[in-house]
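Weekly puzzle thread! Below is a chain. First person to post its structure in token form gets bragging rights.
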Amino acid sequence: MFQLKPLFFVIMIMGTLISISSTSWFSIWMGLEINMIAFISILFKNSKSSAEIIMKLFLIQAIASLSILFFSIFSSLFNLTISNIMMNKYYMIMFPLLLKMASAPLHFWMPALADGLSWFYLFILISWQKMAPLFLMFNFMFMDLFFIVIMLNLIIGSVMGINQTSMKKIMIFSSINHMGWMLSSILISEIMFIYYFIIYMISIIPIILMFYKSNITSLNNLLFNKSKSIMFMLMFSFNILSMAGLPPFIGFIMKIIIFNQLKMTMLISIIMILTSLISLFFYTRLIYTSSSIMISMSKIKYTSKEMYNGIVFSILPSILIPMIII
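Winning reply:
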């Protein structure tokens, strides 16, 4: 029997590419709609996704899409092209894009859906589904509201992640915090944004794979996970520290490049530093939780081959591969 799910994935990717490459708002809206319908169809084909989760996601995306459609009609009536958005400062199109990618302050819907999605679909939601709206944010980079959005993402993403016990919500607020840095990289260049986005993807893929394979959904699961090993802890710690932006990992290198190249005000610079320290707190809490039963595991003997593989597969995704890309 012909499987429709791979076809929907291809359509989802095509929708994103259409939105990124289009020059008219109507074509952008069509690409976003194709992407949304394909993703919801994939969720619908998955028997584990509840109808309530799919309906909530559809309603949120439909509201944002209708707003973009209204603006595309408005722009065609007044001959408003994508190139003069910055001159006219049409904020109305910026808010639907923020809603689509769950950017602060319109992020409320994504944490509510987190626990109802599998790790695989959550990964798509916090990575690929943000790509088209983020590329479209290049049209608003000189607006005053753009800097406010950057600060809100940095603050909300770091502060709201502290008291979370759900691993999926922690990953969502982590993505919101990283979105602040992605939006900051947009102010530098498109290449810098692409680098940061790729490195962000490389960092979260092994983490989500480990959570998926070990069936970890909360801090308690991470604490009492029976499948933990030396290799698991090494891979988990290296990738978490890279996401946290701790030197000498590539996450720190990207953040320091963005921080040095941006000619920002003192307020935004202070917020960048403070929010990085706050997010580092809940990242290190994850590492502490994952290694807290190390004493009870010390009786287990590990071969040198297992420890070697753990070190290799921990360093490659968090340090060497991103450096090759840069």
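Puzzle host: Confirmed. Bonus trivia for everyone else. DSSP finds 17 helices and no strands in the chain.
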